[in-house]
Each structure stands twice: as structure tokens, then as C-alpha cells.
Design goal:
single chain; mainly alpha; ABC transporter transmembrane region fold; 2 domains; 4 strands; elongated
């Protein structure tokens, strides 16, 4: 079974190796550099916190004014980076989605793959995904968006962690404690506190929210089934009206919609539990670093500016380590989307690899040579069929229902697998 990483790699690499690879790679590189620039601005802002609050603590008006001007150019630079990071990220997502949509449409519409996939699905042959229209229209958009946003978010978290863990370590000092009469010192104790805090949070979040992945997968499938049946009612509106089938169709629509609601209620119950914890975790993180650093402040070991710098650095380290917690629901949707696209890709590959019926055009008439017809289930309808019909000949095709008359015409047109 493929891992999620291998599935994402298989879906991602074709675009970055395509004829648009240099534009794609250039945009990606620019976004990465802008993310690094944003982290550097946060490092400067962290140092500014120390100087600004020390100026307030010492009632130093001149330093206070200097730091206000310094904050102005830091903030303006950060805003400039944030705007262009957003713009280039959206541009990459749009171009990637456009390429993937064209790529999948071309493969889905070639060699009657679209027809053969539906035929395989309705006859129960293989693990053919339902609603390929949803895969192309919705899942490609979700995949490109979440892949870019999550990967850049993870990069940002890693770089932020590397940048601020050293700052927090140097500011933490040593934590001295006694156990069984022995004295111990813990170096960089604020870093260890942040790691422990986030490890507990990550474990609890995963335990509370792990059911989101299968529920998200099921939700997308049920929503697509409901939408597909609505379209079906519109397309066959005349036949339904003639047969007075409104009640039957309404029953089928209600049945599908209640399935959507039932699964969604299960999903929001899981999300509610995750939100309870994640909100508590986030609020506690605001005060936690000050509680841990307060003894050193009240003992006079650090000044107010250093306390605020510790709080800021701890917040950055904690945010980086809590990336998994903050993005758990998004990761669940992204993984479900990846699984759906992978199943669609596998089905397209299988249909393209399956042998197609060889049909040659000719003006001399219609002929078959050693033609065998079978249902997708393997049931044989005809074997060794040889037929020759000249232009102008009248032919009457007879047979019992299910004997293969329609199948023969499908084979003659070249669409029967």
C-alpha cells in the first residue's frame, strides 16, 4: 500500500517536470525565499521587543522613539513580503490547477476512458472511483491549494523553529532543582518546556481527531452522490414527469441527503472535540511562558524587556511545534483528497493500459473477424463471430434480451472494452 508521501509525490512531480517546469520552479523558489524573509522579519521583531520594553521600563524617551521608527520599517517590510507571498502563492496554485485539469481531462477523454470507467463502476469491476467530475473539478483545486499552503506552512514552521530555538535557549538560563537531596541544573529549560508542552498537545489532538480522515473522505463521496443525483433528475426531467416518478426521485434524493447529514454530524462531533482542546491549548500558550519565566524576573535575573523577548520567542517556538495541532483538520481533508485523486489516477492508468478493440474504417462494407463478446463480469455472449456486410445489404439482427445485440453495436463502434 502506498504511503501518503509517495501518493503526494506521484501527483506533484508531473507538473514540475512538465513543459511549464521553469515557471513552476521559479514561482516555488520565490515563495520559499519570501517565507525565509518573513521569518527573518520575525527575528528582528523579537529583538525589537526586548529593546522597546526595556525603554519603557527605564522611561527612556529617546530610545522609545528610536524603536518606534525601527518598528515602522520592520512592519512595512513584513507587509510587503506578506502581500507578494500571497500573490505568488495564489499564482502558483492557479497555474498548477490549470495544468493538472488539462492533463487529467486529456487522459480521461482519450481512448473512451470516461466511458469504460463508468462501465466498470456500474458492473462492479475493480475499484473504479465514483464521480470523476468531482475529482477533476473540486479535488484538483483542493489538492493544489492544500499542497502549496501546507508545504509552505511546514517550511515556515521548521525555519522559525530553527531561528528561535537558539534565541530561546540563550534567554532561558538554567533551571536548578533538587531531587532526593541532589541538585540538578537543566540548561535551556524554556526550550524543553515548549517541546514538552507541544508534544502533549500533538498527542492529545491526534487521539481526539484521528477519525476526521475517513469521515472527510466519506463526506466528499456522499456530497458528490447527492449532487450527481440532482443532475440526473434535471437531465431526465421529461422521462420522470411522464412516468410521474417525482415521489420515487424525491425518496432517493432524501435518502442521499440524509446520508450526507448523518456523516456530517459525525464529522462535526469529532471536530468539536478537537476545537475544545486546541482552543484551550492556544489560550494556555499565551500565559504559559510568563509563568515559567516569572521566577527569574521576580528574582531580578532578567529585565522586563528580556521577559517580553522570552514570551515572544517562546510563542514562535510553540507555534512552530504546534503546526501539526493547528493544521490537523486541514491535513485530514488534504489526505482524503490525495487518496481520492490517487484512486482516480490508478483507475485512468488501468483503463489506458487495458487492451482496446481494434477497429479499422473501410468503404467496402462491414466485417468482423473472430470477434468475441463478453460482459465485464466475464460472461461470454459470443465467440469467434465472423460477419461480412456489403454496402446496401439489409441485415436483421435478432436475439433474446441480454443476448448481446446492443453489445455487438458497441463493439462495432469501438467502445466496448
Amino acid at each position: 500500500m502506498q504511503s501518503t508521501a509517495s501518493k503526494v509525490w506521484a501527483l506533484t512531480t508531473p507538473y514540475f517536470k512538465s513543459d511549464q517546469k521553469w515557471k513552476a520552479r521559479g514561482l516555488l523558489l520565490a515563495i520559499v525565499l519570501l517565507n525565509l524573509g518573513a521569518v527573518y522579519m520575525l527575528v528582528l521583531l523579537n529583538d525589537w521587543n526586548r529593546l522597546f520594553y526595556d525603554a519603557l521600563d527605564k522611561h527612556d524617551r529617546a530610545e522609545f522613539t528610536t524603536q518606534l521608527f525601527r518598528w515602522t520599517w520592520i512592519a512595512l517590510t513584513y507587509i510587503l513580503i506578506a502581500v507578494y507571498k500571497f500573490y505568488l502563492t495564489q499564482l502558483l496554485e492557479v497555474r498548477w490547477r490549470a495544468w493538472m485539469t488539462s492533463h487529467y481531462l486529456q487522459r480521461w477523454m482519450s481512448s473512451q476512458v470516461f466511458y469504460r470507467m463508468e462501465l466498470a463502476r456500474f458492473t462492479g469491476q475493480g475499484a473504479t472511483p465514483d464521480n470523476p467530475d468531482q475529482r477533476i473539478q473540486e479535488d484538483l483545486q483542493l489538492f493544489t491549494h492544500y499542497t502549496v499552503s501546507l508545504s509552505m506552512g511546514l517550511l515556515n514552521a521548521v525555519v522559525t523553529l530553527v531561528s528561535f530555538v537558539g534565541i530561546l535557549w540563550s534567554l532561558s538560563g538554567d533551571f536548578t532543582f533538587e531531587v532526593a537531596g541532589s541538585t540538578y541544573e537543566l540548561h535551556g529549560y524554556m526550550v524543553w518546556a515548549a517541546i514538552g508542552y507541544c508534544l502533549v498537545g500533538t498527542l492529545v489532538t491526534h487521539l481526539l481527531g484521528r477519525r476526521q480522515i475517513p469521515l472527510n473522505f466519506q463526506q466528499q463521496r456522499l456530497e458528490a452522490d447527492f449532487r450527481h443525483h440532482l443532475v440526473r433528475v434535471r437531465e431526465y426531467s421529461e422521462a420522470i414527469a411522464l412516468d410521474k416518478g417525482e415521489r420515487v426521485e424525491r425518496f432517493n434524493l432524501d435518502k442521499r441527503f440524509f446520508a450526507v447529514l448523518g456523516n456530517y454530524l459525525k464529522l462535526i462531533k469529532v471536530q468539536k472535540n478537537v476545537l475544545w482542546f486546541s482552543n484551550f491549548f492556544g489560550q494556555a500558550a499565551l500565559i504559559f511562558p510568563f509563568l515559567v519565566a516569572a521566577p527569574r524576573y521576580f528574582s531580578g535575573a532578567i529585565q522586563l524587556g528580556q521577559l517580553m523577548q522570552i514570551g515572544s520567542a517562546f510563542g514562535q517556538v510553540q507555534d512552530s511545534l504546534a503546526w501539526f495541532i493547528d493544521n490537523y483538520s486541514t491535513l485530514a481533508v488534504w489526505r482524503a483528497t490525495t487518496d481520492r485523486l490517487t484512486s482516480f489516477e490508478d483507475s485512468v492508468k488501468a483503463q489506458l493500459a487495458s487492451p482496446a478493440l481494434r477497429v479499422e474504417s473501410s468503404n467496402s462494407g462491414l466485417a468482423t473477424h473472430d470477434l468475441s463478446l463478453a460482459l465485464p463480469t466475464g460472461t461470454m455472449l459470443a465467440a469467434g463471430l465472423n460477419l461480412a456486410v456489403k454496402p446496401g445489404d439489409a441485415v436483421l439482427l435478432t436475439g433474446a434480451s441480454g443476448s448481446g445485440k446492443s453489445t455487438l453495436f458497441r463493439a462495432l463502434s469501438g467502445i466496448w472494452p
